[in-house]
Structures are given as C-alpha cells and as structure tokens.
Design goal:
alpha/beta, Rossmann fold, Alpha-Beta Plaits, 3 domains, 6-stranded mixed sheet, 4-stranded parallel sheet, 17 helices, 14 strands, globular
C-alpha cells in the first residue's frame, strides 16, 4: 500500500490545513485571484480565477508534496523518496525534495512530454523512464520503494498531501471572503478534498463543485456506489485529471464535503483552454481549464461570486497546438473541408478566389491527384480554414456549393 493503515484511517482537519499553510510560508506562492469579465458576463455574477498555473513548478502539486516530505521522520528522509507521474506531481516532488535536502527518484512514462522530463530533472530528481503509461511507471516506483526503502509519495491518496492542497482553499477565503461557489477539477480528488476541508470548516455555506472529464469520470459512479470504483480505460486530453480510481482518503472527504461532481466534454475543455489563452492571457493545461469548461457549459448553475481554480499550466506545446485547433473547431472558428475539382491549370486559384470572396482565411491546403478513387481529370483538395463562427462556417460551405463545388466534409 502507498500509506499505512493509520494514515488511511486518519481524517484531515482544518488544523491540519492551517499547519500546512504555515509550513508552506516562503515555499509556495500565494497565487493571484484574477477577475474575468468575459466569464462574469456569461455567468451573470463575478467570476475570479485562482491562478495555480502560476505556482512554482506550474501547478498546485508543490503544496502537497512539500508538506508530505517535510513530515517524514529523519530516517525516512535519509532513505529518499520516490514518485511516479507524467508531469505535475513529478515536478512538485522534485522541487520539494530539493528544498528539503532529500534525494528523489521519479518514474515517468517513456512518452512523457520532453519539457516535463527536463523540468523534473532540473528541479533535482533522478528521472527514470519506464512503461508507456503512468500505471506502469507507478508499479515500477512502488517496486523501487519496496526494494530500496525509499518512501513512496502518492500524488493524492495521503492526508498530508490533502492538507497541503487545502491551503488553496484558505487563500481563496482570504482573497475573496464573499465567495459563494468554488469550482475545481477532480482527478484522484486530493485538491478538491483539501479545499473542501478548509472551506467547509470556515464557510459551510460555500458551494463546492468538482469537475471531471467525461471520459475519465470515476467519481460519479463511485459516489453512487458508496466506494471507489475503477474505470477500465479512462480517456481524456486532460492528463492532470485522467485518474481511473478515486483515492481512498480523498474519496471519503469528497463524498462528505463536496456538493456536486459534474463532467465536461473534450470540446468544452478545448473551448475553455482557448478562452483562458485569448481572454485571460493565461496558459492553462486542459485539466486546469476544466472549471472554466463547467462554467461555459452550465453558466446558470453557479451562484456568484464564483472562484474557478486553474490548477496547472504545464501543457506540452504539441498538445497545445492540437487543443487550440480543436477548441477553434468547437467554436466554429476552424473548418476542414474536402472537395473535388477538375485537374486543370488555374483550378486551385479559382477555388482560393471563391474562399477569398467568402472571407475565409486559408491555413493549409492539401492537393491530391493520384488517389485511385479519383477520375482521370479529377483532383481532391482538403482545406483547413479559419472562420468567424458557426454562421460563417455555413456561409463558406454554401459559397463553395454556389461556385459549383461538391463539399464532402
């Protein structure tokens, strides 16, 4: 097991969170709480963004990792610590260990983004690449702990981790005493549980809403069953909340203290990430954008003032490009079409002229002449276009039809 029986039975209290807050003084930043006029207009009440994407290491994970490692006995520190992660927890453990003078080893999947691997090493951890997915890295880390005596630092399933993450809740109450709703992404549940412990003890009237990705939503069936339930194949772009089973310790707290756990789609996550970048000027990873996705999908469901916790900003640039395009498509600002035309000189220029008249910006053109599906004098063109919204997409497609082209998709 990743924690002792005593740890598993131990609950987390407001005093624990307050103690963690003192411990983190001078270590973790008190991150900004920024207002969002766009989201406020959508919700019809003030919406503020808790910018944990600007925390040291780029996410809230440093808080819990530091509290957990700082609480180790001297002989445990001497044995070192080990963790498994694809990114945020890895960096949190690496920096916390370096600050505390503890040796750390972090197992990461072989396919982990290179910027996250490099950052984890730069924060001082020994990185070992093992397996294709985090579960395989996790098994390797636990084996390493058994063989070497290193202390395994779980990303969410330990009271000290939860207490550390709960300091986000204390900061929210200090920065926005009038808050009525807090919206937070949920993976294993450590952040939501910690915030709930702190906030409900001081302000039981504040509504706390957890958000999961639709394809990796283990909490709704678990809460319905009254016990943690595992998902066989969680699927989402939001790797920060891509967790197949709730943690035992946070599950009890989430079930008792969190008012609702809702889900958002991949399209909604993409649109939220795009909004954070364009309107708030904040780089946020998909998991960190999940509270914004919930606000966009159900703006009427949240009483204000609302605080949305942007839990992290460590997004791989390659994923960012894909997600932004996906978000643009979801908003009708990106259109991909295929059509056939006669393969003759000037045919492509005529097509581009029709698109110019329709005021569509051409991002990419793929011109194919050799597919066996095509006639001898035919060519197929795939176009990626920047558009101005769903109505403009429809106008562009109609303009192409009016010009005599057969639009295939």
């Amino acid at each position: 097991m990743s924690y002792s029986t005593a740890d598993r039975l131990r609950t987390v209290t407001l005093d624990d969170v307050r103690g963690a807050h003192k411990m983190l003084s001078g270590v973790a930043r008190t991150t900004a709480l920024e207002g969002s006029r766009h989201l406020s207009a959508r919700v019809g009440a003030p919406v503020l963004l808790k910018c944990e994407n600007l925390q040291r290491t780029g996410s809230f994970k440093l808080r819990g990792a530091y509290v957990r490692i700082a609480g180790l006995l001297p002989e445990e520190r001497a044995a070192g610590v080990v963790a498994a992660s694809a990114g945020n927890h890895a960096q949190g453990v690496a920096l916390a260990s370096s600050l505390l003078g503890v040796r750390s080893t972090v197992f990461m999947p072989k396919g982990a983004p290179l910027p996250k691997i490099s950052a984890t090493r730069e924060y001082g951890a020994e990185v070992r690449l093992h397996g294709q997915v985090v579960d395989e890295s996790l098994a390797a880390a636990q084996k390493y702990a058994r063989e070497t005596g290193a202390v395994f630092i779980h990303p969410f399933d330990h009271p000290d981790i939860i207490a550390g993450q709960g300091t986000v809740g204390l900061e929210i109450l200090e920065q926005c005493p009038e808050v009525r709703t807090i919206v937070v992404g949920v993976g294993g549940g450590g952040l939501a549980a910690g915030i709930a412990v702190a906030v409900k003890a001081l302000r039981p009237d504040v509504r706390i809403v957890g958000v999961q990705a639709e394809g990796a939503a283990a909490y709704p069936p678990s809460l319905a069953a009254g016990r943690p339930v595992s998902l066989s194949h969680p699927v989402t772009m939001a790797d920060g909340i891509k967790v197949g089973r709730p943690g035992d310790v946070p599950f009890e707290l989430v079930g008792e203290l969190v008012d609702e756990v809702c889900t958002v789609t991949e399209d909604e996550l993409s649109a939220a990430l795009l909004l954070c970048l364009e309107r708030a000027k904040l780089v946020v990873e998909p998991a960190g954008a999940s509270p914004v996705a919930a606000l966009l999908s159900r703006p009427e469901a949240f009483e204000g003032p609302v605080v949305a916790v942007l839990s992290g900003g460590n997004v791989d640039p390659v994923l960012m490009e894909r997600v932004l395009r996906h978000g643009m498509a979801a908003q009708g600002r990106y259109l991909a079409v295929r059509l056939r035309l006669t393969d003759r000189p000037g045919a492509l220029a005529s097509l581009l002229g029709a698109l110019s008249v329709a005021d569509a910006n051409v991002l990419d053109v793929s011109h194919m002449r050799t597919d066996p599906r095509l006639g001898l004098t035919e060519a197929e063109v795939e176009l990626h276009l920047e558009t101005k919204g769903p109505a403009h997409c429809a106008e562009v497609q109609q303009a192409l039809r009016d010009a005599g082209y057969t639009v295939m998709g």
